[in-house]
Request: fold
Amino acid sequence: MRELHGARTLNPGTKLAAVVFGLVAILAATNARAFAPGVMLLFGTIVYVRPRAGAVLRPAAKIFPFVVLFTLFQVVFAGQGGRVVFTLGPVDITDSGIVSGALFGARVVVTVLYISTIASITRPEELSLAVEVAVKPLRRLRLPVDGFALALTVALQFLPTLTAEAHRITRAQAARGAAYARKGGVVARIRMALPMVVPLFLFTLTHAERVAEALEARAYRYGAERTRLVEHLPGLNDYVIRGAAVTVAVGAIVLSIMM
Reply:
């Protein structure tokens, strides 16, 4: 069964570490050879996770026009001093500009695919738990890490509810004759969203008050040590994946410095 796949049972801290060190490996690459470890990490993650194609490709398809646009900017403006390959009117396209643009576009696409792959096996509560464990040592500096972790958890849990409420308000207003145009410029889309601001704002305040009452009813106390029903203890796979992510990140940094 898909839900029993090993990647879905990884420790939340392992998933967070894979994201952090994976992004370091991808974004720290300054040349094609240094970028290779990040690409290998992406393909290895896809093979291990086996995500649905739509869950990975859909976010990349949404940003593809912006990637093309900014890649062209890199090709045109980041190639000063290189060898001119061809000329487009007053613009000289150089070999260094082409390499810089290609590396920029590939870096953005690989980053989106990598994050989407790990996000497909990560629930919001797992992410908040991983962040809470990661920032826990900062308690010694008297930083409000517990409040930050609680705010992150509530925010992540609230996003699906807010999205569902926005759809409900849209359907209710459309049933009363409101026109929601699917096409149009920025002004038309802003005008379309304005009638939803007040209902969503009131719903947000009401929901926040209910969450506060629920926390008080459960005797929540700031700074208290809490236990969990399910303890996510790291296993052998977790240590192997963490080590692989760190190794890839270090390899990309070393190749960037040496090449």
